[in-house]
Amino acid sequence: MKRVSVAFMMFVLTMACAVLMAQQPPAGGPTGGPTGGGTRAPQTPPATGPMLDLANKLVDAINKQDTATLQKMLASDAVYLDEDGHAPPATRWINKIATGTPAKQIAISATHSQMWDGAGWVSFNYTLTENFQGQPKTLKGTASIVAKQAAGGDWQIELIHGALEQKVAGITQ
Prior knowledge:
By secondary structure, the protein is an alpha+beta fold. The protein has two domains: 1-42, no CATH class; 49-164, Nuclear Transport Factor 2, Chain: A (Roll), CATH 3.10.450. The chain contains four helices and five strands; from the N terminus they run αααβαββββ. The chain has helices spanning 2-22, 49-63, 67-73, 90-97, and strands at residues 74-81, 105-116, 119-132, 135-149, 155-164. The longest helix is centred in the first third of the chain and has 21 residues, at 2-22. The radius of gyration is 25 Å and the shape is globular. The termini are far apart.
């Protein structure tokens, strides 16, 4: 009986070690990477075409405080999601982003996009300069937009998500 128990325990330990070793990520991280010999998924290319045009049109309207153009760019059921996950009406976002003295100034960089048949998305980093309590402030963040092509051919924004850049010690720094 002892002989079977010792052999059985050796088998159980061997299997436990094999299972634990199999759960370790490959070298270079879970996607392989340069040191792991695997290949990483290709990065989404920089934005071009209608999605980049949409982002630039949005920036131009914000910088000019052109609320009429911003309203026209939004689909009737557009949703704005802020950095906290709230979903205030998109018209409130327009009134907040396109008002102020002096006018807010936004610049975008690191654009990425993808298009499908009659729909697409664009994301970008932004720097927004505005006055807050009489003092100039600069906010940085990332925005993502989902749009669809309307029957007339214009692109309309269905969803906007804006997030502020955050520095978290030990995680993002």
